[in-house]
Design goal:
globular; nine-stranded antiparallel sheet; mainly beta; disordered C terminus; about 425 residues; 30 strands
Length: about 425
């Protein structure tokens, strides 16, 4: 009997109305702590680095802060100038072709933001087809055949954008690979699911990128405009509330102020990011509750981080903690019904927790500052009706902090629609 080896090759042909391009997202398990976190939400943002040195209008060598997510063949945007990366992709030292796409070579100052514009629209040098960014999805499949839950926080046609993506489980033992898929001319509507991105224990999620009217991504309760309007500042993603003295962003909508908010001794978690530009004699605060019975996060002065209840401030350390003043500070308090646990930058400050009775009643959500003259940027305020774990706190800090290495972005590639295989025919 004669056996013949026959090789069939299937061509990879783009299908009309399908996604054309994808890039892998490899999530670093070392960022997860010591247990799995299920489910977990991480940010996917396209503005992630900056110039490490000034550029004249001739230089082709560019040094940036973090080049892990910029590959050879990518175009980057520095202010209004596009540059094509030819050498050094994946590193901080790039060789580029200046002034591509009809843009003009100009000088740039150190620390100028650098954006990988692969998710810009076609008219702006990218391959995204929809001007609202709707043909960008996140998938567990390299063929983009399934869609993960995700929220689009903001999208600009220049490619500067911010999403929040839910994965079923963040493993602490193995990296996870998912995909960002884009370039689909048939898409005209949003393909994600904003409310489903946040698990059922989130009762408020405010990205604060809308300024005076923060929207709640859980769908429970948006905040109304405050009587004293709060300006919009630079955020972790696309914007933040810039707090000044007397700016209360905002009183909750009437008739829907307490939906889902834990009261009494019910378990809870409160989280907030603060962008600091100085120290002040008074405080900033995010809280909710009735008069005299509040639950919230407070920073008072330069050094004291407190949890408030019954209009009392509970220091969760035996003495004041002198906290460093990085550009963004992540504060969280987890309450298990008996003890409160205070976290700063993902690490617990009061090991073992602090016992006290909480009698919070229902009431409005406020984000406020007192004695602050030049403003503090508040971002990513979240309330949960569960006591979040230490590993959740650590992973959230690692995922959202500036300069995060929570994931590595792969090079652009076509969507595979075929392949090669062999068969034995007798």
């Amino acid at each position: 009997m004669i056996k013949r080896l026959i090789l069939f090759t299937l061509l990879v042909v783009p299908v009309f109305g399908a996604y054309v391009s994808q890039r892998s997202i490899t999530i670093n398990h070392a960022q997860a702590g010591s247990t799995n976190t299920t489910p977990f939400v991480f940010p996917f943002r396209t503005t992630s680095t900056w110039l490490n040195g000034a550029l004249d209008n001739i230089q082709s060598s560019v040094t940036i802060g973090n080049g892990l997510d910029i590959k050879n063949g990518d175009s980057i945007l520095v202010e209004s100038e596009r540059m094509l990366v030819t050498v050094g992709g994946g590193t901080s030292s790039l060789t580029v072709t200046r002034g591509t796409g009809g843009t003009t070579k100009v000088t740039h100052l150190v620390k100028t933001p650098v954006t990988n514009i692969f998710l810009a629209t076609v008219a702006n040098g990218g391959t995204v087809q929809n001007t609202s960014g709707y043909d960008v999805i996140f998938s567990s499949s390299i063929t983009c055949s399934s869609t993960l839950n995700f929220e689009l926080e903001s999208y600009a046609t220049s490619g500067v954008a911010s999403w929040h993506v839910q994965i079923a489980s963040l493993s602490y033992t193995a990296d996870l690979v998912i995909y960002v898929c884009y370039n689909n001319s048939s898409i005209s509507t949003f393909q994600g699911n904003t409310t489903a991105t946040w698990d059922v224990h989130f009762v408020r999620v405010y990205h604060l990128s809308v300024g005076n009217q923060p929207l709640d991504s859980t769908g429970n309760n948006n905040l109304t405009s405050s009587s004293t309007a709060c300006p919009t500042g630079a955020g972790l993603g696309s914007g933040a509330v810039n707090l000044v003295d007397g700016c209360t962003n905002g009183t909750a909508q009437s008739g829907n102020s307490s939906t889902g908010l834990p009261t009494g001794s019910a378990v809870s978690t409160l989280e907030a990011w603060l962008g600091v530009n100085g120290c002040y004699s008074s405080y900033f605060i995010t809280q909710y509750g009735g008069t005299g019975h509040l639950r919230g996060i407070v920073q008072q002065g330069c050094n004291t981080f407190k949890y408030t209840s019954n209009y009392l401030s509970h220091d969760l350390n035996a003495s004041y903690v002198i906290l460093p003043r990085p550009s963004w500070n992540y504060y969280a308090v987890s309450y298990d019904g008996t003890k409160a646990y205070l976290y700063y930058q993902g690490s617990i400050l009061n090991a073992g927790g602090t016992i006290f009775a909480d009698t919070t009643t229902s009431g409005n959500v406020t984000i406020n500052a007192s004695g602050v003259t030049s403003g503090m940027n508040f971002d990513e305020v979240r309330f949960s009706d569960s006591s979040r774990s230490p590993d959740y706190m650590l992973a959230t800090y690692n995922a959202y902090k500036p300069g995060s290495t929570f994931f590595i972005l792969g090079a652009a590639a076509p969507i595979p629609t075929g392949g090669s295989y062999t068969t034995i025919m007798e």
